[in-house]
Write the structure tokens for this entry.
Amino acid sequence: MSSISSGMVGRSTGDRIILILAISLALLMMAPIAWVVAMSLKDNKELMTDMNSVFHAPYTIVNYINILATSSVFRWILNSMIVSGTLTIFTLVLSSLAGYGFARLNFPFRNTLFVIVLLGLAVPEQAVLIARHQLFSWLKFHNTYHGLILPGLAAPFGVFLMTQYFRAIPKELDEAALLDNASRFKIFWKVLLPLTLPAQATLGIFTFLSSWNDYFWPLISGTKKEMYTLTIGIASTQTNFAQSEGLGFLMSQAVFAGAPILILYLFFQKYIVTAVSGAAVR
Amino acid sequence: MAEAALPGSSSTARPAARQAAQNINAPLWRNALFVAPYLIFFVTLLVVPLFWGVWLSLHKADAFGTGRFVGLDNYLRLFRDKIFLQAVGNTFYFVFLTVPALALIGLLLALALNRKTRTAAALRTVYFSSSVLSVTIVTLIWRIVFIGNFGLLATIYGWFGATAPVFLSDPKLTMIGIAIATVWWCIGLPMMLFLSALQQVPQDIYEAAALDNASRWRTLWHITLPSIRRTFVLVIIIEIVLQFQLFGQARLMTQGGPNNVSKPIVLYIYEAAFTKWDLGLGAAASEILFILIMIAALTQYFISRRKGVEG
């Protein structure tokens, strides 16, 4: 609205200098990505002889064609989609139910249980990893999809977010429905859940992104090549980096793996921003 | 398991509704059915492993099972292990390198981009975009930037006839190289947190300041910065907790080398537990990491609370 409300005043010279600095820094930040993309479009032999060839033609898509022909990338993408997709759906279901329960209903030990769940936010992954790994070894869950998915379902963030969101909805809505003899589940399903769609989108994208990018659990649980997620699979192709003759090919894999998530981000950035700022307003 | 609970709660709810309509806020066991599905996962996959981890750290355990009780022996072994002590030092050094940089750059970016123009919105998108990449892609990008002879850095230095510093093989520079890649990767989150804090500062204070003809710097120093002090503490705590858990970058960029100078605690835990299969030792190291993170977070929390009382 007003120039004052933006915190920094108006269109002065100082303002322009700040903006120019911010743009320059952004370009600097993008430079490594642009360079990697350029490398991925170069012939591998040409790269070996002269790195400066990155900056001029000829460019080729041969590295991308080689991905389609030889690489396991598709299997890894499929694995990542199955794991992240399933985890996201189950997280939404579990968190919505629990969020509704904690925010709207009364039951014995409710507050105690909620505080315990919140304390779970403070537990770093490493404090539970080894025990989880041992548990999953006994259950023979390693190198299975459910083995990759299950640990993510314990994360308390979604419950915290949904509880906050359900609390913010006016209570008169479900009390009116309750007087009409609607069941508690029906109120949840028909009255309140449709109102939480923005929060569902936020939580869904947040869960999907962090699962898609997870590195530690898939590294120790999905140890067979055909059970790698994309993150682990791409990492496994990186060994002997310096000796690699296929730098362009390696870089095309990075682009191939990174591009979908960047495109997803550009489409859904509104919700991602909400998720990040929502986490800030505790 | 989630589906199993749904029909159960809806079929029993019809008689319950009549009852509940009389007393909406009565505590009912049946209501707990909504939180039960999540709690099952929470308890089996978080609470139990948490205590199981403590129990493991007091035992000699390997891949084949949990052996005998050894008390604090695993912890004593850690304190005698030079590599572990070095890993603790490395982790603190890394936190020291990254957290102030993330907080300050994040704050400066938020101040610069807190405006309602399209350019600012586009720049916010750019600065956050690296955060959505996975650690594998980030390290792939930065290894090729830093690599000697033909990396991006070496190429640029080459234009000026200079030799680039070899970040990932010079022991003095390794952790700095990992820190640069990490700041590049993580800068979006602190920027976003500061932006949302800036947007919550009440506008009438700025209007009052403008009426008083307060300069831009006075406004920044006396109004904006004090108003977002709580967020500053929050960002520091979040980043300390996150950066204490350095793992992927160190493993993928340097494997902890050269000579363990870039081996953080989590990489030590990973190697102890999943390459040497000394699960008891790994569990003990993770409990120490847990305690360190708690101490850091609590210290920050209490310092900020005391300042809050004085201010």
